[in-house]
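Ticket #4471: structure output looks truncated?

Reporter: J.K.
Steps to reproduce: submitted the chain below (332 residues) through the standard prediction queue, then opened the result file.
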Amino acid sequence: MGKILTQRELKNKLEKLKKDSKKIVFTNGCFDIIHAGHVRYLKEAKSLGDILVIGLNSDKSIKQIKPLRPINSENERAEVLASLEMVDFVALFDEETPYNLIKFLQPDVLVKGGDWKIEDIVGAELVKEVYSLPYVEGFSTTGIIEKILQKYSTKKPANKIMDKAKKIKFLMLDVDGVLTSGGIILDNESNELKIFNVRDGHGLVMLHKSGINIAVITGRYSKALDRRMKELGITEVYQGTREKLKIFNEIVKKYNLKKEEIAAMGDDIIDLSILSRVGFSASPQDGHEEVKKMVDYVTEKKAGEGAVREICDIILQSKKLLGKFINEYKNI
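Returned output as attached by the reporter:
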């Protein structure tokens, strides 16, 4: 049996170790990009007992907290942690906090970094000893990511993206190549068919419920788009127009919008007239290369495969609204 275990396997292992009077230390985190600060912290945590257990946030768990992360997958992160000498066991958890995992494993010691006050540490009441270890200045995963982006990319650092998203009151979207994959299906009667992503739709519904207006502007026309937008409650629908900038200006005037209050997503150079005039611009991962060079954010997802949902989640998270929806659905 290796170091990376299921929660049940880990529970069984720890029960045997406790019978041998081993002191179990527990800590948790994302551990997305391991750096010297992590190594020093984990060494000190291990010194507080005999066995060091890490509760590792799964990819699903991290997305609830940081929609732009993780950089590395849960399996990769677990493998790196398991390779460290001071780490004895690693187990994944899907919840936003490790409370249920701590309650299940019943460790002797709970440890977090110095940015946590002891009274705020999740699960503190469940264990015998709780420690907040001194914070190691100058080391952070976010700092590493921002340093890489500043040095090697024209994309804005993650915190700047969230700052931009926080100000958004209106989202404008192209259709083909954004809400769809860009493929065009014509039947024998010249009807244009489109395939929409359900998750994109739900993201737009959550934005609308949060008071953020949405408009779609496309150079083509299809009855399918009309139907889908009606289902989502989106009324600002402009089809068959090549003068996207004219529509943009009309919407800005109608809603009295400032540049920083508008987000837009497009995939081709025809969309640049709008993308260059908004506070937060985005392109799908498979957008035109020239567009991707100019926008603030390029999604990890492709068009029609969740790219729009990714932007919706970023906007909601920046306004601290995504967790509200998650909690609502948990309690249905």
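Triage note (M.O.): checked the attachment and the full token line is present. The mean pLDDT is 90.
Status: closed, working as intended.
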